[in-house]
Amino acid sequence: MEHLNDAGQQQDVNGDGRFESENQRADRNWNEILQELRVAQTGTQILGGFLLAVAFQPRFQDLDQFQLTLYLILVGLAGVAAVLGLAPVTLHRTFFGQGRKPAIVRLGGRLLAADLVVLALLAAGVTGLVFDFAVSRTAGLISLITGVVVVVSVWSVLPHWVIRRSTGSDSRGPADSAAPNSVWRVD
C-alpha cells in the first residue's frame, strides 16, 4: 500500500530511509534477488561442469567406493542447485501480472537461500573430493570440514560480528556507515 503525505509525496513508512511503495519495494527486492541468482547460477555452472567433466577423465575409474559415492552425491547436489536457481524465475513466470509480486519476492528469497545452502555444501564437497583423490582421505576430510567452517564463518559469524561492532543509529553497517556512499548501505 502506498502511503502519501499531505503534499502527495511517498512517505518512509518502514523507517529505513527509502521512500517507496510496497510495489516499488517488491520490484527493487526482486531485482536484487535476480542479481544474486546470477552469481549463484555461475557457481552452479562451474561446479556442475567440473563434476560432469570428471566422469570422462581416464582416472575416473580410479575412484574408490567412498569417492564414487561422494561424487554422485555432489552431482545430485549440482542438479538440485540448478533447479533451485531456476525456481524463482519459473515462479515469477507462473504468477506474472497477477499482482502477487510481494509473495513472489518472499518465496524467491527463500528459494535463493536454499540454493545458497546447497551451493555451500557442493563447494565444500567438491573441495573435499579433490583433496581426497589427489592427496589422501585425511586431507579430503580436513578440506571438507575446513570448507564448512569457512562457509559458516563468512556467512553467519562475520555478519553478526560486524553488526555487533557497529555503533550509532544505523545497525546495517559499521560506525562510519553514515557516509552516503558506504558499501554497507543498500539504498
End-to-end separation:
20 Å
Strand content: under 5%
User: What is the number of helical segments per DSSP (H or I, 4+ residues)?
Assistant: 4
The SSE string, one letter per element, is HHHH
Question: From the helix content, strand content and strand pairing, which structural class follows?
Answer: mainly alpha
Q: Give the overall shape.
A: flat
Rg measurement, Å = 22 Å
pLDDT below 50 for ≥5 consecutive residues: which ranges?
A: 171-187
| Major sheet size, sense and barrel closure | none
Mean pLDDT: 82
**Helix content range:** 55-70%
DSSP, total strands: 0
How is this fold's topology laid out?
Elements: H1 22-54, H2 65-95, H3 101-134, H4 137-165
Helix pairs in contact: 1-2, 1-3, 2-3, 3-4
Structure report:
The two termini are about 20 Å apart. The chain has helices at about 20-55, 65-95, 100-135, 135-165. The protein contains 4 helices and no strands. With about 190 residues, the protein is mostly helical. It is flat and about 60 Å long.
